[in-house]
Amino acid sequence: MGVVLGGKRCQSCGMPLAKDKAGGGTEADGSRSARYCSYCYDAGRFRKPELTAREMQETVRQVMRRKGMPRLVAEYWAWRIPRLKRWRGR
Ligand SMILES: [Zn+2]
What we know:
By secondary structure, the protein is mainly α. It is built from 2 helices and 2 strands; from the N terminus they run E-E-H-H.
């Protein structure tokens, strides 16, 4: 797991970390998070700690459709969300 699709992805929203303009989220000590993007994670905390996997799926669907992604691709990534580290074991 994890490397199945190649490239590191945010373990909260599934975005490729390489596409994160900020280069990834930050930990409490200011270092880069190797796991989460800057949209999800800042200073060692999730920006929306109360968010559920279902809500994240809906957000991902909307963002991808807005970017003109094919529906199948958007659905695929929405499907992937509960399998990312942040949401597993909940
Ligand atoms: Zn993210």
